[in-house]
Amino acid sequence: MEKIWDALERLKTYYTTLDKKHSSEKIVNDMANGNDDFADLFNNEFKVLTDIGNKYRIRHHETDRIDITDVRY
Known about the structure:
Elements: H1 2-11, H2 20-32, H3 36-55
Helix pairs in contact: 2-3
């Protein structure tokens, strides 16, 4: 699971001339190809995935993170 989130975080830095936030925005805009509905969809998906990675004990291991105790999750 951790490797998947690492890959997502690495993807966000694809455009090395941009900081992570702007690189992520460019990726979303490229994927949406000018379609605002798809841009909204992709932005929401990136945010949800980032929130999952930060909230659960996947990439971060602070004591306030939620353990994933069932392999089906």
